[in-house]
Amino acid sequence: MQITETSAEGLRRDFKVVITAQDIESRVQTRLTEVGKTVKIPGFRPGKVPMPILKQRYGQSVMGEVLEAAVNDGAQKAVSDNNLRPALQPKIEVLKFDPGQDLEFAVQVELLPEIEPADLSAVEIEKPVAAVADDTVTEALGRLSKGRRTTEKVEEDRAAVTGDILLIDFDGSVDGEKRPGMKGDDYELELGSGSFIPGFEDQLVGTKAGSDVSVNVSFPAEYHAAELAGKAAVFEVKVKEIRVGKDAELNDDLAKTFGFDDLEALKAAIKERTEGEYGQTSRLRAKRALLDKLAELHSFEVPAGMVEIEFEQIWKRLQEELARGGADAEDEGKSEDDLKAEYRDIAVRRVRLGLLLSEIGRRNNITVSREELQKAMFDEVRRYPGQEQQVFEFFQKNPQAVESLRAPIYEDKVVDFILGTVKVNEVTVSVEELMRDPDEDEVAAA
């Protein structure tokens, strides 16, 4: 096997590999001999089939196997002999091959760049943090209380007002024709909730228990049932009762319905959970600040193939968003060429940061354990209540799916390591500032 380097430019290396006809023939003979030990051909004992017959029957398929193996061996040897670190699988192009002739093919290898991380101890970032206010806990308790709300019948003879809950029977029609889904009995409708067709609830304000009301409305133009969209409708409504909602009392009994010993334990749990949410957001903001700083400090060439793969993924997601009408306001009015240039820059940044984090992790012996992978798998399984068994079986049958969980775990571990190395200055901010999308701040400042 003869390997010749034909080009060395940036992160790309090109080689020409020649495997002699004699080598190919020897490989074919060896493989046919192996095949001859197991095949059954009438008139011959296993292992005694003449080579000419083996060649006639299996020569073409064996040649295919041999050529594939020879090409892979040549590419691997080009990499190993030159101590290369490929970024992706080498690209191979067969240049020349005819039966009885030498095999010639080209191998193109993209290399991982040599990366020298900056002095992390000199890096300084800000981490926004926010305290959990008492009002936040009170508001959360209020939502829990409202979620356990009951209704009470209004005994006095009065007209319904916004906020009341009416117990109604209703029966609707379009063009005098009854339609499925437009009838209901003993339905509790809160006036002002906006849960019915626009205008429906407004026409019931001022009614009394026992009233019969004809409600005239039109279905919205974008109504989910196309046959009703934009149609005028009439609903005959019987107001059976006026009720008022009564939130559950904030006491130990309410706490026990949520599995806590008393109200104080429920408050503590709410505060702890909220602190966890704030902490997670703080970490994400710190991670973003860290990645921005690392991007500023490092500028090295990245493999074009990796950039192309990343760009294609980004561009595909963007096209899907555009198809759903979810384009970012800042992208509106831009040409496709401008958008591609911007998103390619994003792809370059992501690849560069990914390689940098990988190198920092490698130098500091950061790895992902089997236990961490299993935990991530079970966390993923729990995300699909009612389908746990199917998801678990999917992971069991697809080891590569489990391996796909490794990258985000590894990145988080490396980021946590770096955050423990750099200087992190905590800055107290309001909850609104903490939760605000950083991209909105950048747009406002532009």
From TrEMBL:
Q: What is its EC number?
A: 5.2.1.8
Question: Is Nuclease one of the keywords?
Answer: no
> Where does it live in the cell?
Cytoplasm
Q: Which domain of life is it from?
A: Bacteria
Concerning InterPro entries, the annotation shows: PPIase_dom_sf (IPR046357), PPIase_FKBP_dom (IPR001179), Trig_fac (IPR005215), Trigger_fac_C (IPR008880), Trigger_fac_C_sf (IPR037041), Trigger_fac_ribosome-bd_bac (IPR008881), Trigger_fac_ribosome-bd_sf (IPR036611), Trigger_fact/SurA_dom_sf (IPR027304)
Instruction: Describe the reaction catalysed, as an equation.
Output: [protein]-peptidylproline (omega=180) = [protein]-peptidylproline (omega=0)
In Gene Ontology terms, what is a biological process of this protein? protein transport
Q: What class of enzyme is it?
A: isomerase
Coiled-coil regions in this chain?
none
Q: Which GO terms describe its cellular component?
A: cytoplasm
The principal localisation class reads: cytoplasm
One Pfam family from the record: FKBP_C
Q: Which UniProt keywords apply?
A: Cell cycle, Cell division, Chaperone, Cytoplasm, Isomerase, Rotamase
Q: Which GO terms describe its molecular function?
A: peptidyl-prolyl cis-trans isomerase activity; protein folding chaperone; ribosome binding
UniProt cross-references to HAMAP family, sorted A to Z:
Trigger_factor_Tig
Role: Involved in protein export. Acts as a chaperone by maintaining the newly synthesized protein in an open conformation. Functions as a peptidyl-prolyl cis-trans isomerase.
The free-text domain remark for this protein reads: Consists of 3 domains; the N-terminus binds the ribosome, the middle domain has PPIase activity, while the C-terminus has intrinsic chaperone activity on its own.
Protein family per UniProt: Belongs to the FKBP-type PPIase family. Tig subfamily.
Q: What is this protein called?
A: Trigger factor
Q: Which organism is it from?
A: Niveispirillum cyanobacteriorum
